[in-house]
Amino acid sequence: MDPKPRSSLCYEGLTVMTPNRAEALQLAALDEPGGVFPDEAVCRRIHERYRPEHLVVTMGADSMLLSKEGRVLERMPTVAREVFDVSGAGDTVIAALTVAMAAGLPLPQAARFANVAAGVVVGKLGTAVATPDELLAHARAMEESVDL
């Protein structure tokens, strides 16, 4: 679920929660930090309050923060090659993450897949989709750039 902190919905017991940076701080009842985002505190507080099994905080162009049961797993850098429009990027992350986890991938692999999908859609103008061919091409380009 992509939570909205001002909503009256019950967020307890979710499998995956995907707030963005600002929403995560609100859900954790923390003020916007002046410097480094408080990964550990945010993950711990959200888990204590809402008990999601997994937490994926989308940090915009910076990264995605992955947590399981309140413990930080990793901070994954984004993979967009070019950014033209971020419209729909968060929705793409949620959709791709859900598909990957429903297919049985563990959170880190599912998040990598979601990261690739978001990298494709932000490279297009307006809200867009990522086709299977585009996902494969983007993933291959990422692998090649790492090998250099």
Brief write-up:
This protein is an alpha+beta fold and 148 residues long. It has helices at residues 21-27, 39-50, 89-102, 107-121, 132-147, and strands spanning 16-17, 54-58, 63-68, 71-77. 30% of the residues are buried.
Helix content: 40-55%
* H/E series: EHHEEEHHH
Numbering strands along the chain, what is their spatial order in the largest sheet?
Answer: 1-2-3-4
Rg over C-alpha atoms, rounded to the nearest angstrom = 15 Å
What is the number of strand segments?
A: 4
How would you characterize the overall build of this protein?
By secondary structure, the chain is an alpha+beta fold. The protein folds into two domains: 1-77, no CATH class; 78-148, no CATH class. It is 43% helix and 14% strand. It has a four-stranded mixed beta sheet. Helix 4 crosses helix 5. The radius of gyration is 15 Å and the shape is globular.
What are the SSEs and their pairings?
Blueprint: E1 16-17, H1 21-27, H2 39-50, E2 54-58, E3 63-68, E4 71-77, H3 89-102, H4 107-121, H5 132-147
Parallel strand pairs: 1-2
Antiparallel strand pairs: 2-3, 3-4
Helix pairs in contact: 3-4, 4-5
